[in-house]
Amino acid sequence: MTNITSTTPSRWQRFLESDFFYFFKRDKVAIGSFIVFALFVLTAVFAPILSPANPYDLATIDIMDSELPPAWLEEGETRFLLGTDNQGRDILSTMMYGLRISLIIGLGAVALQLAIGIVVGLTAGYFGGRIDSFLMRVADVQLSFSTMMVAIIISAIFKASFGSEFYSQYAILMLVVIIGVAEWPQYARTIRASVLAEKKKEYVEAAQVMGFRSLRIMFRHILPNCLSPILVISTVQVANAIMSEAALSFLGLGMPADTPSLGSLISIGFTYIFSGSWWITAFPGILLVLLVLVINLLGDWLRDVFNPKIYKG
């Protein structure tokens, strides 16, 4: 008797033989972007191990080391490879920790956007009628305002309601909520369009005839067939969320100065850039640009791969 288990390929083998991995291997830009993004993620995860110093440990910070230039410039010190900021913190270390915070906020905000957008989009597309009209009008109203305007309004409300001290203590959670609430309509509209196309297909009609509940049909049958556009949007939205956090921090509505993110580091350094301490802003700014660039390149590649009319390999 033939052993069926031994001949059945594993999930990893199926992935290596899939068209997705085949096209990935042939695209040098996608490979390079993925490698750089993976390095950023590993740096953020292992920041406490890789960073030369802990920017949160006040005992190791000396104000006399403030605004030291990078090590290769005159008056620079080898223990501060990229120089120090106005508080004497090592720029390289703060960038590593700031990268971690920016990625947490970006991924957390996208997860919240995804949760709200999926629920609203599935509900609107599946049930239609007045429910669809009401939910889409809410989304349209929010889309009529810019993302930053919505984020600034919500951030100001949080600060006025709970106070600046409370906001600073829970800044990461607050920014996840603010950015997530500000940008969910992008998901809702895309998922709704996919649901409108899927619910007319035979497998949905068969599930309805069999008496399955609406929630089961929506989440177990329709949603898996809408994952391709969701994945593409998510990569772009991660980059947008990171940029939104940086912009809010630059405006003083994001991370506090004692908890560095890439946005707050750029904001801190901008004050000193005209005094000659350009490195405080320049290096975090370059890192932010590279991070957003590689995420956008991966998003563009995914968009083309999932659209066979565009992608040619």
UniProtKB/TrEMBL annotation:
Subcellular compartments: Cell membrane
Keywords: Cell membrane, Membrane, Transmembrane, Transmembrane helix, Transport
Gene3D superfamilies: MetI-like
GO terms (BP aspect): transmembrane transport
GO cellular component, one term: plasma membrane
Topology in the lipid bilayer: Multi-pass membrane protein
Pfam families, A to Z: BPD_transp_1, OppC_N
CDD domains: TM_PBP2 (cd06261)
Annotated SUPFAM superfamilies: MetI-like
Membrane-crossing segments per the record: 29-50, 101-129, 141-160, 166-184, 222-243, 278-299
Residues in ABC transmembrane type-1 domain copies: 99-299
The keyword NADP belongs to this UniProt entry's keyword annotation: no
Family, as annotated: Belongs to the binding-protein-dependent transport system permease family.
The protein's name: ABC transporter permease
